[in-house]
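Form 12-C: Joint structure prediction
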Amino acid sequence: MRVVAALSGGVDSAVAAARAVEAGHDVTGIHLALARSPQSHRTGARGCCTLEDARDARRVADVLGIPFYVWDLSERFVEDVIDDFVEEYAAGRTPNPCLRCNEKIKFTAVLDRSLALGFDAVATGHYARLVEGPRGRELHRAVDPAKDQSYVLGVLDSEQLAGAMFPLGDSLKTEVREEAGRRGLLVADKPDSHDICFIPDGDTGAWLRDRIGASPGDIVDAESGVAVGHHEGAFAYTVGQRRGLGIGTPTPEGARRYVVGVDTGTSTVLVGPPVLLEVDTVVGDRPRWCGPAPDVALEGQVQLRAHGDPVDAVIEVVTDDAGATQVVGHLRERVRGVAPGQAMVVYDGTRVVGSVTITRSTRA
Amino acid sequence: MRPEAVAAMTAELTAVGNPSSLHSSGRRARRVVEESRESIAAVLGVSAGDIVFTSGGTEADNLAVKGLYRARRAADPRRTRVLASAVEHHAVLDPVEHLGAVEDAEVQWLEVDHLGRLRVDLLEKQLVSDPGSIALVTVMWANNEVGTTQSMAEIAALCAEHGVPLHSDAVQALGQLDVDASTVDSLAVSGHKVGGPHGVGALVLRRGLALEPLLHGGGQERDVRSGTLDAPAIAGFAAAVLASDADRAKRTARVRLLRDDLVARVTTTIDGVTRNGDPVDNLPGIAHLSFDGCAGDALLLLLDAAGIECSRGSACSAGVPRPSHVLLAMGMDPVVAMSSLRFSLGHTSQESDVDRLLEALPGVVARARRAGPAR
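Section 2 - Result
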C-alpha cells in the first residue's frame, strides 16, 4: 500500500512509520505544520509543533530513507480546532481538542488529501488497534493500558478507520522506545508530549482570557447561594476543578470545595462539596460512531476523560422531541466531575463503539 | 561538480600549506589562490585585486549590503536609505530587512513589473530625490525563482550618474549569462552554482569603495574579509568558473532550446498552465510554471514519486510552503503563487528528461487538481 506516515517528530510516530516501511508499504513521511508562527524549540514536554520537531521528523524520514514533506494545515487547525476550542470554553464547556484534531485534521484534512493524491492510508503513532471484525473494521483499545489512546480516536467513523493505520496498538510504550533506539531513531529518548499543543506555556486560563476577554463574576456556594469569591471569567473553570479557586478552600467547616457548575451566561461559578459532583447519568449529543450505531441498549462501558477509567454502563440511543439524537449513559456506579463539552466514549469491552459530546449529567 | 573543479580541488586537498604563510608550501598555496583569483577576475571582466573570497554567496551578499551601508553611513550620517529590488534572494532581502529593523535604515523596496523586471523609471525617481541620502542600491542580476534578468547596464549607469554604489547578487547569473562585473560596484558570486564546490564564493568589490568588514581577524582578504583561505575550494571554484565560461555559449544555447521546448510542450499539452517570468530576457535553464487549481507541494510530491525532481522555489526553515515574495511582488495572487513550480535544467539535462516529464505531468496535474489548491 502507499502510506502517508504522519511524523510529529516524536518517538511514537517514528516507530509507527518504521514499522509501516518494514511491513513493505511504500511510505511517505508528512509533518503537519499546525502553528502559524512555530516556536523554535520545545520547552519541556509541551507543544508538538516547533521547528525542532519538524527537524526531528525530517531526520526520522532520513533514517528510514523515505520522502518527507511538510504540509501546512495551520489555517484548518485554527478554523477546526482552535476556534472551536475557544467557542466551547466561552460557552462554559470543556472541550478536548485532541479528539477534534483527530477527527478534523488528521483523519479528514490529511486523509482526504492523501487519498486524493493516490495514497491508501494514513499511519499515525496512536496507541490503538484496528481489528477486522464480522461487521467491518473495528477500533479497539491498545494492549498497553497506560498508553491507550482509543479515547481520542473515538470520533473516527468507518470511512476514516478504513484509511487509518495504527502500527503501535499491539506494543507497550517501553517496547516502542527500545525499538526506536535499536533502529537508530534519534528521537528514542524524547519526552512524551502532554497538555495542549497550541498553548505553549500550559496556562489555559490566561490563554483563554487573551481571546475571550475578562468577564468577571462571582464564585457562589451552590448550597447556601452565598458569594464566596470572585473570578475573571467563568470560562476558565471546569466542573470538578479544586485548585486555583482562590476562595480559601476548604470551607471554614473543613470541607473541600470543588467547581460544581459553570454558567458563562450569568458569569457564575458554582462551588460545593464533592457529593454535588457525583452523577450516574451522562447525556451527550453529536454522536460519532466507529461503525454501526447500537440499535438496542448496549451493556458496555463509558470513558469520560482521556485518562479516565472505564465505567460499566447501559448506553441508550434516544431521539428527542426535536428529532435530535441523544446518547444516554446509565452508569452502574457514580462518578465525579463530569464536565459538559468533554467526550463520553462508548466501549463494548475493548471495542470502541463511538463517542458523544457531553451536554449534561445528573444523579438519580 | 564539474570534473575540472573536482580535479583542481582534489589536487589541492592533498597539498600542504596555508596561503598566508611565508614558507615555501605557503607560497605554493598562495600561488594557487592568486592564479584562481586572476582566472575568476578575467572571466568577470575585473582586476584580480577586486576579488574578495568568501564562504559563499550569502556571505558575499551580507558583506556587501551591511558593509556598504555601515561604511557609507559612517562617512556621512545622512545616508540612511537602502534601495533594494522586491525580488531579491533572501541572502540580500534578510540583511536589508535587518538593517531596517536594527540599524535605522530607511528601506525602500523597488517595484518590479508582472514579468519580474525592475521598474527602472521608479528607481530613477528614487535616485533623483535626494541621492545624498542613499547608502546603496541592490538589484539582483537574474532571479533565482522565475529567471528574469535585469537591465543591469541601464541600472548601473543610473546609479553611477547619481554617485550611489550598486550591489548585484549575480549568484544565479554566473556561468549562465555574460556577467561583466565592472559595470557594478559590488557583485556576489558563488562556487556551487557554476559547478564548483559548495562553501566558497566571492564578492567582487571595486577597489576604493570603503566597506565595513563582517568578520574581524587576520584580514586575509584586503582587510575586508578575515579567515584562513580555503585553497582547495578556491582552486575548484576557479576551475569551474573557467570551464563554465569556456562552454557557456554552446551549453546555454542548448539548454535554452531544451527549456523552451519543455515550456511549449507543457503549455500545449496541459490546460491551465502559465509560464512566469520574462519570456525573453531570462536565465536559460529555468522554467517557472503555475498550474491552475493545484497545490505546488502536491505536484512536487507526485513528481518526486515519479522520479522527477523540481522545486517550489523557496521554503522557510520548517519547510512550510508559503507564497514566494518574488511572485507576490510580480502581482501574483497568493493561491496562484502556491500553485507554481520551478523546473531547472542544466548541462546534464537531455530531451529524454523532458519526454519523461511530459509523460508523468498530465496525470500528476490531474491528481493534484483532485486534491485541490493550497489553502
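Section 3 - Comments
The first helix of chain B runs from residue 3 to 13. The mean pLDDT of chain B is 95.
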